[in-house]
Design brief:
The chain is of the alpha/beta class. Helices cover 46% and strands 15% of the residues.
Length: 562
């Protein structure tokens, strides 16, 4: 089947090119009614198998044929910006394309003028709490990387946002995309969607374990691949490690040319050595870099000017950078939630999915480095022969409390409306036998929220309302714990001394939303405080007071004794 068989409007056909042959999963989705029905769809197939094109076709049909408006939701800012540039370049002649990744308190009414808007999942969540009227005009909601719903921190927010959106706008289509969701049938049943599930890839993938006792063996492999004409992504577990490995590789590569010199000038901002490294055809890619540096590197890699990028795990989901060879130097990564633990199988498969470029390679190669034969066997058992983790709802007690408050802020003023929200979640679909217990505990959650000032309960009229504090906390996207900490901390500091910017900074650093520093980075920052005794005293005093107790049931512990 070709695009010319789809009877696209002339403007859309011009964008895609009518001679493009559809991939098997794409043809299956078309035949299942993607373009001639209003059904929801879950499309679960490997990276580069054409999922995004299917979503684009569905959105364009809605925009061009039905004057619809569409939302495209992604998990990361970098991916949102990449999609925005791509869609704007392709569709500006037929659709007004916009993007929104922040300003969580706002209803973002300006977004109403766009036909196609790219959002982060947090922005979608915040919009479902504010519920602007224009959200009812949305005809298609696309959720990319839908397996993020199984993430312990961000999953509940995506799940809550999807449930509220579907309740607020039940006529909108939902199209969920993922390369790593083995229980896609459950996801499809939850969304009442047609399921397209396929293992087909446009380029065959070889998954192997590479035995290398030290970095020299890895470096030699990368150099050999580059000399053979391949591009390579090397995943390293730390920012320092990615930069260090890139420097080692630069010392061995001799790829210098005029195009790399131009790239070196683009990324030279005078604060790092990236410009010197890229002259050799290699770069590191992590959160240390300025956004403009990252974009320049990504564009050069896609143009095949840059041969190797040494990157941290965030690149796995952040941007689309295919290469012939993908090497995972470290399969164990440190996170606050898991410590130094092996990465999930799903993450490894996401990374391997980048191996193999349809227009350049006959096959892709995904390698995980092992330092011994014993480790090689462990990796093969876990990742090469292992199964993907099921996507499970992560509605913990704290997450449920936050989502219940968000739903009240969004307009659920009676217990029955909250029940309806809970019943519409993926958690309820996966755990139907537990919903009776959850509803029994709802009264306890509501009383707790009332006790600390997030809501009021009018028992006479059976009505629940968010207080100004509760509404502001939810719309600012604060967890209940962080909102309480900030309120009590400001009250404590206000009674004691005039609040300085540094006091507020110390307060903010205690919030759940602030990513904790690793020990090395913390030492560097702490050393800068040593020349300011007042900062050290005030910081220690604030931290000491706040650590004495900030839980919901100990909110009066901030007493003010020095």
């Amino acid at each position: 089947m070709k695009l010319s068989d789809l009877n696209l409007k002339e403007r859309a056909a011009y964008i895609f090119g009518e001679d493009k042959e559809l991939y098997p999963p794409q043809e299956e989705a078309i035949k299942a009614g993607l373009l001639d029905s209003s059904k929801n769809f879950v499309i679960a197939s490997p990276t580069a198998s054409g999922k995004t094109l299917l979503a684009e076709l569905a959105m364009l049909k809605s925009i061009l044929h039905d004057s619809g408006k569409c939302l495209y939701v992604v998990p990361l800012n970098a991916l949102a910006y990449e999609k925005y540039l791509n869609f704007k370049d392709k569709y500006s002649a037929v659709a007004n394309v916009g993007i929104s990744t922040g300003d969580y308190e706002s209803s973002s009414r300006y977004l109403e003028r766009y036909d196609l808007t790219i959002l982060t999942l947090e922005k979608l969540d915040s919009l479902t709490r504010v519920k602007p009227s224009w959200l009812r005009q949305i005809s298609v909601l696309v959720v990319d990387e839908a397996h993020v719903l199984g993430d312990t921190k961000r999953g509940p927010r995506l799940e809550g946002a999807m449930a509220r959106f579907m309740s607020f706008n039940p006529s909108a289509r939902v199209i969920a995309l993922s390369a790593t969701i083995p229980n896609a049938d459950e996801f499809g049943n939850w969304l009442n969607a047609s399921l397209i599930q396929s293992e087909w890839r446009p380029v065959p993938l070889k998954e192997e374990v590479f035995l290398a006792k030290n970095d020299n063996a890895i470096l030699e492999r990368v150099v050999a691949d580059v000399k053979a004409g391949s591009q390579t992504l090397v995943f390293v577990n730390t920012k320092r490690g990615s930069a260090s490995f890139a420097r080692k590789l630069a010392a061995r590569l001799n790829q210098r040319n005029a195009e790399l010199d131009v790239l070196a000038d683009k990324v030279d901002i005078g604060v790092d050595d990236l410009n010197e490294i890229v002259k050799h055809g290699v770069a590191y890619h992590n959160s240390w870099l300025h956004p403009e540096q990252r974009r320049a590197l990504e564009e050069s890699f896609r143009a095949r000017v840059l041969k190797v990028i040494c990157c941290t795990p965030t690149l796995a989901m952040g941007v689309s950078l295919p290469a012939k060879v993908v090497i995972i130097r470290n399969y164990r990564f440190f996170t606050q939630e898991r410590g130094n633990a092996p990465m999930p199988v799903g993450w490894i498969k996401q990374v391997f999915g980048r191996a193999g470029r349809p227009e350049h390679d006959r096959y892709g190669i995904g390698l995980i480095v092992a330092k011994s034969e014993a480790e090689k066997e462990t990796i093969e058992e876990l990742y090469i022969r292992g199964a993907l983790e099921r996507v499970e709802s992560q509605f913990s007690w704290d997450a449920m409390t936050e989502q219940i408050l968000a739903t009240i802020v969004a307009g659920a003023h009676r217990v029955e409306a909250i029940y309806e929200f809970l019943d519409s979640t993926f958690y309820a679909y996966q755990n139907p036998d537990e919903m009776g217990f959850v509803k029994d505990e709802l009264e306890s959650i509501l009383l707790q929220l009332e006790h600390v000032g997030f809501i009021t309960i009018d028992e006479a009229n059976d009505e629940i309302q968010a207080t100004d504090f509760g509404a502001l906390s939810s719309r600012l996207y604060l967890s209940t714990k962080s909102a309480l900490l900030l309120r009590e901390g400001i009250n404590f500091l206000g009674d004691d001394v005039e609040i300085s910017d540094f006091d507020l900074l110390i307060l903010l650093c205690q919030c759940d939303e602030v990513i904790q520093l690793n020990v090395k980075d913390a030492i560097v920052i702490a050393s800068s405080f040593s020349n300011n005794p007042d900062w050290v005293y005030r910081g220690a005093k604030c931290v000491g007071q706040f650590y004495r107790g900030t839980r919901m049931d100990r909110r009066n512990d901030l007493s003010g004794d020095e």
